[in-house]
Specification:
Blueprint: H1 6-9, E1 10-13, E2 25-29, E3 33-38, E4 48-62, E5 66-79, E6 88-92, E7 103-112, E8 115-122, H2 134-139
Parallel strand pairs: 1-4
Antiparallel strand pairs: 2-3, 3-6, 4-5, 5-6, 5-7, 7-8
Length: about 140
């Protein structure tokens, strides 16, 4: 990976998220949401696209090595290459046809050396709260 800042790599959009067609995903189902991820070989990352739809969207921190968001999501998705398929998709509710109530989540990107890490912290029960900086403080960055 080139020596570029995380701010130059991650691009955010406030949109609803949907799975890419003709892509096979693995699911992690929770009480309040479903998380889908594409199993595929990753190439070098230089352009990450994050789409979010929900309430109380807040950028907790954004600098050269850390970007952290807090929101109550209806959906969010991540593309490792902006022109490729969706790599990670999360939707509130218990299946793709039913959108549930917004779920509190913290999303964090961390750049260390030549790697970018994506960390998700969500509550299992949407009635529980999550402070906006909880994940950032937990990571002790």
């Amino acid at each position: 990976m080139k020596n570029i800042s995380l701010e130059q790599i991650v691009k955010e959009k406030m949109l609803d998220s949907k799975a890419s067609s003709d892509v096979l995903y693995s699911d992690i189902s929770q009480q309040s949401y479903i998380l889908k991820y594409k199993l595929d070989r990753l190439n070098l990352v230089s352009d990450i696209s994050l789409s979010m739809r929900g309430n109380n969207i807040e950028r907790v921190i954004k600098n050269d090595s850390v970007i952290c968001y807090s929101l109550k999501f209806i959906s969010f998705s991540l593309k490792i290459d902006k022109d490729a398929d969706v790599d990670i998709l999360a939707q509130s509710g218990t299946n793709e046809d039913f959108r549930g109530e917004p779920v509190p989540v913290n999303l964090l990107f961390l750049k260390r050396n030549k790697s970018v890490y994506f960390v998700i912290l969500a509550v299992n029960d949407r009635h529980h709260s999550l402070t906006s900086n909880f994940l950032y403080e937990l990571m002790d960055i």
